Amino acid sequence: MAISQKVATETKKFVNEYLSNISIDDLPINIDILVKKLRIDLVNYTFDDDISGVLVLNESQPTIGVNQGHSEVRRRFTIAHELGHFILHKDQGTMFMDKILFRKNSEKYSSKDEKLEKEANYFAANVLMPENAVRDLFSESIIDFYDDEDIRTLASKFKVSSSAMTYRLINLGLIDYK
Asked: For residue 14, what are the contacts with CB-CB under 8 A and spacing of at least 6?
């Protein structure tokens, strides 16, 4: 399922507005400050292990809740993912609850839910790993991007998981999926 042109445009607009001047020296993206700039409350919460986060849209204050029991890189991606729901989907519901390991449990989602989740993941990847910063690091690197340790090193610069970094490199066409 490809990302729609509308989602790509909205994501690019957001990244250009908030992250256009990001350089390698500004990494990792401070997602907490970005959420606060948008006047969204950010709450660490003790969810069940299978729930990574939630976005609640109410009249008074939007709130992102993130599972405090998850790793830092997982929490960062969850916050960016919920921010994606806020930017891209706020007209499509008042609450978005996201379960971890979405890809493994996708049969529990409707096709509409699956589409929204993939769009929010796309948004999160673009925010946490801005294309210009990824390309700059890629062009300056002499590391082997097919080596797990080198991927972990790059992922640590963005404070994302190795799998998120790998998907980003593949989606940007910087490495081939084999």
From this structure: 87, 123, 127
